Please model this.
Amino acid sequence: MEKRSRSSFVPKAWKSKWFICLLLVFLLLVPNLSSGAQPTIRIAQAVDALAFLPIYVARANGYFNDEGITLELIIVQGGGPDLQALIAGSVDFDATSTGGLLRAFGGGIELLGVHNVVGKCIIDLVIRKETAGRLGITPAMPVQERLKRIKGTIIGASRVGSLTYQIAYFLAKEAGLEQGKDVTILGVGGGDSALAALKTGKIDVMSYAPPFPQVALKDGDAISLVANSHGEYPKLNSFLQNVLLTRPDYAKKSPDMVRRILRAMVHGNRWVAEHDAKDVAKVVTKFFKNTPADVLLNTVEAIKPAVVPDGRLTLDGLKGVEEVYRVNGIIKKPVPWDRLVTNEFLPQ
Model:
């Protein structure tokens, strides 16, 4: 089951301040157990989006509970705080972009990728209809021509440095445009904030994971600029987008727990791969109640092919991510993937 909040109290009869201080220290040191003495495992997730589809399915179908685990999921708004929480030991795992692993490595910190959550780029860019009309951008144009015409626009991503930011930065650079000079890429928070900013004209383009670009298209506020979820930009077709990370010391200390978490995760992957998109959308709809049913279905249909049934990390997909971060100037030397990822904890 997923963890609910806990509370505690101090009996009125215990009035000694010294005793109360000792009691509070003791409570902080007590292991965090829930019903049935199941261990509580904390997983951070970079953003509340269907880009983490197998996790939503695993949660909905109770696969973590099947492994004897109480899951405490902490969702943040854009990659960054989730990595910091993992590095600091506040969480045990982090579901984030593979680029987060590279950013940590670039900063001298080695984390460990243990599961392929989504194995292709599904960050889509949509452009405000009014902006597209002003710039002469149409869906029929070649994608490279569309990108060349976005000079002078403001692009919204979830957070500066996040994957949504990096994809926008990479595509602008591919079109010969420079961030801060030819385009401005801003961090605007979660997908709902980006939709509001697009609708009011505070941003011209949004670079986000599903379902938010699809909602903008459905509402008639935007047209597609780059549909990566449909493989429109060839250089991003081999791109392992999202991964589950842990700390190497945690994996060494608790290998059985890593395997249990991954059994639940892979169960989610396989369920997505083996079931019709309508069934998948029905299972996850409780997490996306504000998303129209047709948008949710279209989004699941776009993501489903990116879900690798066995959760294995592939070198081709990892190299695709490395290339984007190399072009963006974040990675300056070859990445030792054999130190940063492993498939050893996955179900055989």
